[in-house]
Amino acid sequence: MPAHDIAHTVLLALGATEQHGPHLPLATDTLIAGAVAERAARLLGGTAVALPVPVGASSEHREFPGTISLPHEVLAALVAQLCDGLRRRGFRRIAVFSAHGGNGRALALAAERLGDDVLILPDFRMAPVLAGLGIDASRAGAHAGLAETSAVMAINARLVRIDLAEPGYVGALEEIWGVLTTAGLRPVTANGVLGDPRGASPALGELCLEAWVAAVVEAVARWRNGAE
Ligand SMILES: [Zn+2]
């Protein structure tokens, strides 16, 4: 391996195991986390990819079958331990991101005990990527809607039961935020979907993944260049 190909940076992506409507796999967030990390590492060069963490903080999906969840504190401790392990393996820079919004609090807790060799990337939202195509955010969805469904189709269309795709809650997210963060999704969506997955396609998914990958590459490259 030429010296310039030796990986000094590693990407640690967080996923989740949670219900994603009747049409998407439980591993949706983990699949997306892994795909974004793989693609970003290829573009960055000198970057390895840790296996994505397959369980996250998903208590807001607890009423739906298949969901498993860790408390925020446990996930934060896990992230800190994994970063320690990667550091001992010789990685000098560790970039962490999550494909599940619910992991944000754990990442904030983990950040308090991590050094400046760890970069925690901000959340990425796919819905705004589709807004440029006239697809509104309520349809693109925050969970198992058009955006996530398209992203999984782009990764592996065979994992999506598009014949079972049906809309869930398609109103404004701000209006239900208080319920989501306390009682969870069940009171606002019977099928566990936030958005409308109908019309999802691999092409739309590619757009979402590309934008996400570009955001990761940009942030990690800037960090490595010492700009932050
Ligand atoms: Zn998801």
What's the short version?
With 228 residues, the protein is of the alpha/beta class.
Walk me through what this model shows.
This protein is α/β, with parallel strands linked by helices. It has a single domain (3-224), classed as Creatininase (Rossmann fold, 3-Layer(aba) Sandwich), CATH 3.40.50.10310. The protein has helices at 28-44, 72-88, 104-111, 127-131, 137-140, 146-156, 173-180, 202-224, and strands at 9-14, 47-49, 93-98, 118-120. It has a four-stranded parallel β-sheet, sandwiched between helices. Helix 1 (28-44) links the parallel strand 1 and strand 2. Helix 6 (146-156) packs across helix 8. The longest helix is centred in the last third of the chain and has 23 residues, at 202-224. The structure holds zinc ion (ZN). Zinc ion binds at residues 20, 28-29, 100, 143, 148.
Helical region count?
8
End-to-end gap: 30 Å
Fraction in helix: 40-55%
Q: Which architecture per CATH?
A: 3-Layer(aba) Sandwich
Cross-sheet strand order for the largest sheet: 2-1-3-4
Features:
single chain, 228 residues, alpha/beta, Rossmann fold, 4-stranded parallel β-sheet, 8 helices, binds zinc ion
